[in-house]
Amino acid sequence: MRCPELELAEDFTGPLDASRIRFLKTESTSDRFEMLTRFITNYVARHQNKANQLLHLVGVPLTFVCSVVLLILQRPEWAAAAFVGGYILQIAGHAIEGNDPGELILIKRALGKPYQESAPGNEEQSKSAD
């Protein structure tokens, strides 16, 4: 079975060698730039409150960096605590901001429930999956 994201060089006969692997471009650079621009615009709009920004400044690295480092150091209990604690900080920030966290938006959208994407007073307030 071929993997569309990965193409092995035609003359591949030896052991797996990173220099013999070419990653195929599935999107153009302009598409990636547009996607990044949309992400940043959305992120900035959803994180206006200074307390939310501060809680995310601590919570995001705690969730995604510290928990991985603690797993590498074979401290699974501390890694779980860092992961959960970081998410709690981010959820608290969104509660202060007055909007739903991104993960909750995805769940509510999938269930067809209304959600609060942006803080009250911003352009796009609440949406539904319809």
Keywords:
mainly alpha, 4 strands, two-stranded antiparallel sheet, 8% strand, 130 residues
Percent in strands:
5-15%
Order of helices and strands: EEHHHHEE
Terminal-residue CA separation: 38 Å
Uncertain residue ranges = 1-17, 20-25
- What integer value in Å does the Rg equal? 20 Å
Oligomer: single chain
Tell me, rounded to a whole number, the average pLDDT. 79
How much helicity do the residues have?
A: 55-70%
Largest sheet entry: 2 strands, antiparallel
Strand order of the largest sheet: 1-2
Based on secondary structure, the structural category is mainly alpha
Principal-axes shape call: globular
Number of strands: 4
Contiguous helical run count: 4
Write the topology of this structure:
Layout: E1 6-8, E2 21-23, H1 29-46, H2 50-72, H3 76-97, H4 102-111, E3 115-116, E4 126-127
Antiparallel strand pairs: 1-2, 3-4
Helix pairs in contact: 2-3
Could you provide a short overview of the structure?
The chain is mostly helical.
Walkthrough of the structure:
The protein has 130 residues and is mostly helical. It is 56% helix and 8% strand. The protein has helices at 29-46, 50-72, 76-97, 102-111, and strands at residues 6-8, 21-23, 115-116, 126-127. The strands form two sheets. It has a two-stranded antiparallel ribbon with strand order 1-2. A two-stranded antiparallel ribbon has the order 3-4. Helix 2 packs antiparallel against helix 3. The longest helix is centred in the middle third of the chain and has 23 residues, at 50-72. It is globular. The two termini are 38 Å apart. The model is unreliable at 1-17 and 20-25 (pLDDT under 50).
